[in-house]
Design goal:
UDP-N-acetylmuramoyl-L-alanine:D-glutamate ligase; 10 helices; alpha/beta; four-stranded mixed β-sheet; 333 residues
């Protein structure tokens, strides 16, 4: 039985050099921005009206979600980031803009479409971080042509100085076939990578991308292969790379780590999470870290090493979270 191939190690000096170089990069994030709203309370009884828990409200807060969380993760690593997304003409849009500006993410690339609401996910959870319910406010149909036109104009302006483009697809209407074709063509013309956090119904749209980052459930559905072992992940990643006509695939496997198939590279990265509290937004962190690293000149496996470390940091926290440069330096040390 052959040993599972692992990707080359990332030395401390090289990791620190890449983290230094990220600070001078510019990354464009395009996709479905959303507002993650959390309502937290204590559960001590079941409702007499229905077999559901009664949550005694204690506090609430909101965080950037979806593509907005990807942009926040890129900014937390020190890179300049342009977020290109669509919001409604409503209070959640104003709240999102405020949250992003407070985190150093510019909001000039947010296109307002009054015909659709700002995507918002309200999670009702207990003080022990157990989610009770989720309420989604959204529209998932494709953008109207006029809104697409405005978005592509903003994208072109932002991409002119970018070192990478990250696509964050949550099936909320922004990542259309036309938008995806334009992203790939623009990035290829400039010689910069396109990284995609994908969704299964849109897999055919990503042809020509540099790297896809499906989780193991998405990789299973897209490849029609069961993934129970590292060898299974290898087969699925290789098949997706060929069938989807992309340069590479990084399958995230939770506690089993990641598998990267990119060009001649084909190897496993063991997970390094020390504690898992909540995996919400971990995929955002992975694709954001990859994008920032590759914009700084990292190879795909070097970016995957950094992304693996960043994911290990954020899953220890509740809700969407980010890994900072200082935290990555400490973890890699």
């Amino acid at each position: 039985m052959t040993a599972t191939p692992e990707l080359p190690p990332l030395t401390g000096d090289r990791a620190h050099a890449l983290l230094d170089q990220i600070a001078g990069t510019h990354v464009v994030v395009v996709g479905d921005a959303m507002l993650d709203h959390f309502m937290i309370g204590k559960v001590s009884r079941i409702s007499p009206e229905a077999p559901v828990p009664v949550v005694e409200f204690e506090r609430e807060f909101s965080l950037p979600g979806g593509a907005a969380n990807v942009a926040h993760n890129v900014r937390a690593l020190g890179a300049r980031v342009s977020l290109v997304a669509v919001v409604g003409n409503d209070p959640p849009a104003a709240e999102m803009r405020g949250l992003l500006e407070a985190r150093g993410v510019g909001v000039g690339g947010l296109i307002t479409d009054a015909s659709r609401p700002t995507t918002r996910k309200t999670r009702i959870a207990t003080t022990r971080n157990q989610q009770v319910a989720r309420i989604d406010m959204e529209r998932s149909d494709d953008l109207a042509a006029a809104v697409e036109d405005a978005l592509l104009a903003v994208l072109d302006a932002a991409a002119a100085t970018a070192g990478a483009v990250v696509v964050s697809d949550y099936l909320k209407g922004v990542v259309t076939a036309r938008v995806m074709r334009h992203v790939v063509a623009t990035a290829r013309a400039r010689g910069i990578p396109v990284l995609v956090d994908p969704k299964v119904p849109h897999m055919a749209l990503y042809a020509g991308a540099t790297l896809l980052t499906p989780n193991h459930h998405e990789a299973e559905s897209a490849s029609h292969l069961r993934i129970r072992t590292i060898d299974d992940a290898q087969r699925a990643a290789r098949q997706l790379r060929e069938s989807l006509r992309v340069d590479g695939v990084l399958v995230t496997l939770g506690e089993q780590g990641m598998w990267l198939a990119h060009g001649a590279l084909d190897g496993h990265l063991p997970a390094i999470a020390r504690e898992v509290s909540d995996v919400t937004g971990a995929g955002d962190t992975v694709v954001a870290t990859l994008g920032a690293a590759m914009a700084a000149g990292a190879t795909s496996w070097e970016g995957a090493r950094l992304a693996n470390a960043a994911a290990g940091i954020v899953v220890a926290r509740f809700g969407t979270a980010v890994a900072t440069t200082d935290e990555l330096r400490a973890r890699l040390a």
